[in-house]
Amino acid sequence: MTTLTETSVAGNDDRRNTEPNNSALNGRQLMVALDVDGTLVDHDGHMSPAVRESAQAVVEAGHEVMIATGRSLNATLPIIEKIGVERGYAVCCNGGVTLRLHPELDGGYEIIHKATFDPAPALRALRERLPSAKYALEDADGNFLSTERFQDASFGVEAIGVDFQTMLEATAVRVVVFSTENTPEEFNEAIEHIGLAGVTYSVGWTAWLDIAAAGVTKASALENLRLQLGIDPSRTVAVGDGRNDIEMLGWAGRGVAMGQAPEEVIAIADEVTHSVHDDGAAHVLRSLL
Fold first, then answer.
1. What's the confidence (pLDDT) of residue 185?
2. How many Å apart are CA 46 and CA 85, to the nearest integer?
3. Residues 6+ apart with CB under 8 A from 152
4. This prediction's pTM
5. pLDDT recorded at residue 247
6. Amino acid 195: pLDDT
7. In the chain, N or C: fewer CB atoms in 10 Å?
């Protein structure tokens, strides 16, 4: 079962109406959704000056620039700060958490939407099929529970080691499964064999599986924001590189895949830019100015 806890997204009075360039857009404002890892930063977590400066320029021009990432909240906030978004929104946990950003809020943000689910059925099925994998879970309070001292930078906090039974009893926003012994293809085979129901999942570059609540993706969270903000679908842009970006690229009026993206990601995109190592995101962002 999926549980949604949310407050209403702020209206026009809370948007970037203090930005001098906003009125100059005259209805040409874009909603720009940006993946982080493999898009804004390379797989070592480095953001090039070209990407940072071009993202900041699009923000300063008055467009609605939003991070849309699989990362959890605390791992997303430094990226938001780096590209200069002080007012607006961000999507974390592959759509599981949506933030409203404003400098007057405590810490500069508030959670306005959170989707949780019961992870036990998926965890039991995966454990049986992938017994050597490591498991981590973000609970409803933002804590990470993990097996075998599993830790990743995308968590944003230090994971707490627990036994598997404790994970089964938790309420989850995000579940991560990682294995050094399985290929992404083997992960896909395991998922097809299990027939995961009641959750949304995506397989990453390595043997990495991210699970969210049923029907929850980056695209679903972004569409909720688009409707609230009253931005026409044709004015939406998304840039990403991973399998968890497929729905987002299909959702956007202009969906751009990074050059190093897998074939199935490129297939859904409207266009392909350079790779993350050649500042592909910067090329796209500069085209919006």
1. 75
2. 18
3. 136, 176, 178
4. 0.87
5. 96
6. 75
7. N
Measured distance CA(53)–CA(19) in Å, rounded: 18
> How far is it, in rounded angstroms, from Cα 63 to Cα 284?
14
The two structure tokens encoding residue 10: 């702020």
Ranges of residues in the chain with a pLDDT under 70 are 1-24, 26, 197-198, 205-206
Q: Concatenate the DSSP letters of all residues of the chain into one string.
A: -EEEEE-PPP-GGGSSTT-TTTGGGTT---EEEE--BTTTB-TTSPPPHHHHHHHHHHHHTT-EEEEB-SS-HHHHHHHHHHTT--SEEEEEGGGTEEEEE-TTSGGGEEEEEEEEE--HHHHHHHHHH-TT-EEEEEETTS-EEESTT---GGG-SPPEE--HHHHHTS-EEEEEEE-SS--HHHHHHHHHHHT--SEEEEE-SSSEEEEEETT--HHHHHHHHHHHHT--GGGEEEEE-SGGGHHHHHHSSEEEE-TT--HHHHHHSSEE---GGGTHHHHHHHTT-
* Sign of the alpha-carbon torsion through 198, 252, 203, 161: negative
Amino acid type, 224: N
Distance CA 38, CA 41 (A): 6
According to the model, what pLDDT value does residue 131 have? Answer: 84
Amino acid at 193: H
